[in-house]
Amino acid sequence: MSVVAQTESADSIPAQELKEIVIQAPKVIRKADMDVYHPSKSAVEHSQNGLQLLNNLMIPTLTVSDALGTIQAAGQSVQVRINGRESSIEQVRTLLPETIKRVEWIDNPGLRYGGANYVLNFIVSNPTVGGSFMAQARPALNQAWGFYMADAKFNTGRSQWEVGGNFKLTNKIKTHRDYTETFTYSDGTTLTRDETSRGGTMDNSFANAWASYSYIKPDTTVFMAEFGLFHKLTDKFLYNGLLSLSDGSDDILLTDSHGDKGGTPSLSLYWQQNLAHKQMLIVNFNSSFYFGRSYSDYIEQLPGAASYLTDIHTNIKDRNQAYAIEADYIKNWRNGRFTAGASYTANRNRSQYESLGGDIFHQRQDKIYIFAEYFHRFGKWTATAGMGVQYTDFLFKETNQGTHTWNPRPQATITYSLNQNHNFRLNFTSWQSTPSLAETNIVPQQLDGFQWRVGNRNLKTANSYMLTFRYGFNLPRVSGSFGVRAFTSPNAITPLLQWEGDKLITTYENSRGLQNLSFFLAPQIEVIPNWLMASGYIQFRMERMRGTGYTHHSNAWSGNANIQLMHWGFVLSGQYVRAQRDLWGEKISWGENLNIIDFSYNWKSWQFSAGVIMPFGKYDQGSKSLSKWNRNEQHMRLDMRMPYISVSYNLQWGRQKRGAQKLMEVDANADRSTAGGR
């Protein structure tokens, strides 16, 4: 969607700017509450869209993949914003690189950001043309995989229209699963099952379309309306295997398949009014609807047999709705800023279990959030303090049972700027996590011959607290940060395994808590000025997880490394990612271990590139269970060694107004069911 400014000359909202002492560096400006990166001329010239420009900035903590369309930081999700308005990666792709004045990297988000781990805010200035058209195609050469997009913007007077869409194809990518598990029964006997892979496939294709309208009256009013439609065409995982049992039983042929598909239309309305005396009022409304299905099929069969040992089918049809409205008030002074806001979010979920005779279940969730925050500067010191309060209410219509909780959300930050090259920041933050639809749904779902999953409707909202100390430094050709982070969630919502007769049940509980301590280093190195850059992130984390009947520990390294050579319109880049290991409940899981090489050339409005995903090593994504009842280890392998080509086109014409600036965004994402699966 588009982003429009308040005036023809400014690149951000005047009432939102707060003057403060900053630390200047060639590549980064360190403010009290963020790091600011200004794109170099070379970075802009070698980019065709906003995501490519972000990748060329080489922000140390970030892992950016234009090929995969992902943005992560330290293995965690990143909330992306455009001029303060929460946006999507698809919307970042539609930004013209020439219009991005700066990128704000916030690793200690305030209360306005609703518990985000990290925030990345693109400040976009006034384009100088009246329209633009952007297109990109990136097919793989050896697989049915690719990404395609197009976006157009048009302007008339104070109005701006935008329309666009994209399509991501992943069809029958070959997969393999390495899996072994040992069950320990209540009487102490054990059974080990080793799964030998017989191949499988993965499908993950979706289409996305959007249209928006914005009206702007400079220095006074901004109005925006946008409509989006996301359609997941297929998200299917199919595994075939051969089970060997330690009790001497015959080997078993296994088919394990699960997936979902559906559509999510959404509507967003936004109104912003500038008031006298550096005041501002912002109101935002969002709604979304999910219409879809999820399924799980699990079959065990003796070789050559006509009948099945186990035949489990779960089919769930969802009709879920979400609505949210938020209002924020901002007041600025010379050395201070006050922000206050309130939001209401409503989720209405209806799930029909077609595999259980069409039984229908309803869940209602309401959430109210109120916060106030104040920022002040004292010479070289700055301080931010605030308090949020969240009320959450659940109700299950069929049983007329539910829960409700009140939770405080305090937050504070202190920053000291020693000189132009060194600053120190101490940040405390807290947030709440509400139980999901899958975690609270009490309908039993069979996973295999004797494993089941049942939700817990008595779950309470979980609290999380984090304390981070960060030292930021700027040295000749080297800048970055070093820090220590301590995290605790004393009542984290986690899975719980327990035997009930001959059934191993996975349910959910408010655990006795997760604690971890992380040490991290994130440098950016200018090896050859304007030619060769390197950046990276390395983290060592120690974790302890406690729940009913267990205590587990985990220590692990993770990180990423990026290197980029650019000159004469050519860009050669390489990326390596070692995924973060996360201890949650009685399971250690990790995301994608990846490496990518890409080579591109920019010519006028065109960019041509070629690359390889996973040129080295094996793709690995998996988990390891530490439960005394079921110890297992799973590795998912994909045939991800994929060479690809990419062609991008960026055309601009006339005189274009800039896109409307949303300073805040309220989230309304419809929840969805999860069908059982091993």
What does this protein structure show overall?
The N terminus is likely disordered. This protein has a 26-stranded antiparallel beta sheet that branches. The protein has a six-stranded mixed beta sheet with strand order 1-2-8-9-6-7, with helices on one face. By secondary structure, the protein is mainly beta.
By DSSP, the count of extended strands is 39
Globally, the shape reads globular
The total count of helices amounts to: 4
Low-confidence stretches: 1-26, 656-661
Averaged pLDDT: 86
Radius of gyration: 26 Å
Helix content: under 10%
Report the sheet with the most strands, covering strand number, pairing sense and barrel closure.
26 strands, antiparallel
Roughly what fraction of the amino acids lie in strands? over 45%
Amino- and carboxy-terminal Cα gap: 39 Å
Instruction: Give me the secondary-structure category.
Output: mainly beta
Main features:
678 residues, mainly beta, 39 strands
Brief synopsis:
With 678 residues, this protein is mainly beta. The protein is built from 4 helices and 39 strands. β11 (144-156) and β12 (159-171) form a beta hairpin.
Secondary structure topology:
Blueprint: E1 29-30, E2 35-37, H1 41-45, H2 50-57, E3 62-65, E4 70-73, E5 76-77, E6 79-82, E7 85-86, H3 89-93, E8 100-106, E9 119-124, E10 130-139, E11 144-156, E12 159-171, E13 173-184, E14 190-217, E15 221-245, E16 252-275, E17 279-301, E18 310-332, E19 336-353, E20 359-378, E21 381-396, E22 401-419, E23 422-433, H4 437-440, E24 445-446, E25 451-453, E26 462-475, E27 478-489, E28 493-500, E29 503-510, E30 513-528, E31 532-547, E32 550-567, E33 570-578, E34 581-584, E35 587-603, E36 606-613, E37 620-626, E38 630-638, E39 642-654
Parallel strand pairs: 6-9, 25-29
Antiparallel strand pairs: 1-2, 2-8, 3-4, 4-5, 6-7, 8-9, 10-11, 10-39, 11-12, 12-14, 13-14, 13-38, 14-15, 15-16, 16-17, 17-18, 18-19, 19-20, 20-21, 21-22, 22-23, 23-26, 24-25, 26-27, 27-30, 28-29, 30-31, 31-32, 32-33, 33-35, 34-35, 35-36, 35-37, 36-39, 37-38
